[in-house]
Amino acid sequence: MPELDVSTTVNGRPVEMRLPTRLTLADFVRDRLGLTGTKVSCGMQVCGACTVLVDGDPVSACSYLACDVDGREVLTVEGLADGGELTPVQRAFVDCSALQCGFCTPGFVMAATALLRDEPHPTEEQIAHHLDGNLCRCTGYLPIVEAVLKASRAGGIDE
Amino acid sequence: MSELRVVGTSVPRTDAVAKVTGAAVYTVDVTMPDMLHARVLRSDRAHARIDDIDTSAALALPGVVAVVVGSDLSSLFPRFGHIVPDHAILAIDKVRYYGEPVALIVATDLMVAADALSLVDVRYTELPAVLDTDAALADDSALVHETGYSGVSATPVVVSEYSHRNVAHEVERGWGDPDGAFAEAHLVVETRTHHPMLYAYAMEPYNAVARFTDGALEVVSTAQHPFMVARDLARVFSLPLSQVRVTAPYVGGGYGSKSYTKVEPLTAVGAWATGRAVKLVLDVEESIYTTRADSADVVVRTGFAADGTILVRDFELVLDTGAYADNSPLVLDKAVNRCFGPYRIPNLRVRGKAVYTNTSPASSYRGFGAFQGNLAGETNIDQGAERLGIDAAELRRRNLLLRGERLMPGLRGMDADLVADLDLLVDELDAGPAPAGRLRGVGFGCAATDAGAVPSSTALVKMQSDGSIVVLTGSTELGQGSRTVLAQIAAEELGLDMAAVRVLQSDTATTPFERTTGASRTTTLTGLAVQRACADVLARLRTAAAEVWECPVDDVAVRDHSIVAGGRSMSYGETVRAWFGPGGGEVVGQGVVRRAGVLAELPPFWEIGMVGVALDIDPETGQIDVHQLVTVADVGRAINPVLVEGQDLGAATQGLGGALTEQLVYDGSQIVNANMVEYRIPRITDRPRTFTSIVAERGDGIGPHGAKGVGEGARNPLPGAVAAAVARALGVWPDSLPLNPEHVWRLARKGISQRSGT
Ligand code: FES
Ligand code: FES
């Protein structure tokens, strides 16, 4: 199996590893780094459960090669709540009961975090447009929209 | 009810923080020391004899530890199935559907296991396949199963009590004199509907981890009913139930599709063959081929009197069960009970068949049996109203069961006020006008389903020496919020803060028996068991205090969450400490719910579905916007109102998906859309523009504080409501789902040509 040396930063921590070239970013963070908050569902860039941020941009980690994060910064859901303090997005998902089984939640939280960084006060339509690549089978989405609106009122993401 | 402190309030979910931080552990996140990874080689034909499987090349690949095929399992009971043990763990002698597991490859690395798949050489002889129910029921059809199955003998036995040997289950039910009543009817309305195959799409795919330790089998699985799975596994490996441990951590969605045994035997066989821990995770395509919902063809005729009174109903249902029975016999039983609706029906005949075909196995999906039958039954009522010139709500009002009336002889009387629920619903619906270029259609529907399943729940409550408690239950947290609701019930009983209550769930070795997590039963039945366990704790604390104080137990009472006698008083924690002394201890209470007392009559409760939609339809494109969704949650008492609303919105949204976009499509032997691109579920941009959740609390449930279940109700009448809304907007009644843009556009064209043609 061909391999490459990869040097990256994950949740602020430098990581250097030799990785198979076919390893996905999702398998890299889940299996090699034990960061299992990132979930894999559809495996084909439809559901957004595997959303992580690479240099601040949301990507589908199931369809992104781990070797391509060489020299970049990766942020997963575990990197958000610093020292146990929830970010406004996480807090709003809790307060609005914007989750049930929770399998989609890390992906939604990451996608919403990216949205609020670019657009601190989005309209409902902007939220829906931005999160159209994230599926949730449990909630019917309305509490998720409400949570993102609430987080935007609370000041978006913590810097 | 003003004295309630915690029950009735929307306390935050106790699992929410773990779920937003990524800390929540699901089966896919579980690893075991020295664990191997498995992949499944699947059949690429619908029906074929297996002549030979050559595994040598796969075994030669470095990293491959074992390749297991059906013939390797002859020392085991090689099948599973809680109703009919027909389900081969790995195909034996022949394959019965495209996608059936043929070989299990176990390797040190997932990529190696994947690479080895193409190295297994299977030689087949094709057999004629029956790919739909018509083909399966033809006189000279090929048989999906040549034999029947007994639950005790590993060898198949010849059994067939049904009208055709491809019938997995057959039911006939009814009363009165249907033929006589049809002859008297003022109007007879006939409706035919086709409900497609669906996929539940729990986002966490089917997966499990298994190992044997000290002769005992341990399995972690994304399973709704771990106790049912343990039973199947015990039979496969001839183990006592006490030597099989199944645990379910957080489950990434279930909706019925993770009821009963799925990949656990396959995973355990991997562990058995290698002597090591094995993990098997299916992808979405494999999950789709593992379990789908039964499709249904239904013909219904209803005879009405001139004033709209229902005189008689007659239903014929044919369900496509696929290659293995799984839960489909029960799906059929439920469809037969659930198709005719919560109406007063003096004469009834229902005939149903669940039919084996060479397609993927069908089983439970949220509200199973109900939505398939309800589409036909409610469409037929709406068509009757139209033909009689009676308002559709008024026609229902005249026929809905009143409180205490029996839907079926021998079953519990109606424990809800259906007419009041309907009035709440129709008052809320917005008939228009629609935006320019759109047509507004309004539809609604009713259902009452025999919910709660078989009452068998035991809960334990462990009072700690500091007064906090641990609640142990075998009921699974699927996302519905049972961990929170059961904690609320216990906190209320014992006067505790939520923070002092910990709920641990679903470990067959340590949590007490729970039959299932389904049929919307948890709040009602497990809730009662928790309430009773709390009462048992208090009784034991009184006895303990009597011994400490050396007084008769009758002198000891519970007052304001303390144990008191005469002028003396101890907190619960103090009582535990005083009784056990400085060594510490805990007082354990047990609560049991079984089919006795208030639960002697089935069902435990009727689950009510009352939903309505207002749709804006573009007749030029067939595009539908859901302008409004209204649900009535007739829950007796909402233990946690926000969670109740969440169940209704979630269930209704799945119903909208089923009504508007979802269907699994077979073309020949294969599903052509076995992926989440082409199997289109509701997205955030499809959400209803407005949602009204009406929670009707009349304290009329049998559960804690008058509660009864929610979770499936809003799913069941949704497709029929959507069909009616489309029909009223376009003037043409749909007879199948989904009502996707192409289908709606065709109906719109048909409506226009019908109107201009007459
Ligand atoms: S798992 Fe990556 S988008 Fe669905
Ligand atoms: S909370 Fe279950 S999929 Fe979104």
What does this structure look like?
The complex is a heterodimer of chains A (159) and B (758). Chain A starts with a strand and ends in a 6-residue tail after the last helix. Chain A has 2 domains: 3-79, Roll (Ubiquitin-like (UB roll)), CATH 3.10.20; 88-153, [2Fe-2S]-binding domain (DNA polymerase, domain 1, Orthogonal Bundle). In chain A, helix 2 (88-95) packs across helix 5. By secondary structure, chain A is of the alpha+beta class. Chain A is built from 5 helices and 5 strands; from the N terminus they run E-E-H-E-E-E-H-H-H-H. Chain B has 3 domains: 18-129 and 201-290, Aldehyde Oxidoreductase, domain 3; 400-450 and 604-756, Aldehyde oxidase/xanthine dehydrogenase, molybdopterin binding domain (Aldehyde Oxidoreductase, domain 4), CATH 3.30.365; 457-599, Aldehyde oxidase/xanthine dehydrogenase, molybdopterin binding domain (Aldehyde Oxidoreductase, domain 4). The N and C termini of chain B lie far apart (61 Å). A 7-stranded mixed beta sheet of chain B has the order 3-7-1-14-11-12-13, with helices on both faces. A 5-stranded mixed beta sheet of chain B has the order 9-18-17-16-10, sandwiched between helices. Chain B contains 18 helices and 32 strands. In chain B, 28% of the residues lie in helices and 26% in strands. Chain B is α+β, with helices and mostly antiparallel strands and 758 residues long. In chain B, strand 12, helix 6 (226-237) and strand 13 form a beta-alpha-beta unit. The mean pLDDT of chain B is 96. At the A-B interface, helix 2, helix 3, helix 4 and helix 5 of A face helix 1 and helix 16 of B. The structure holds FE2/S2 (inorganic) cluster (2 copies).
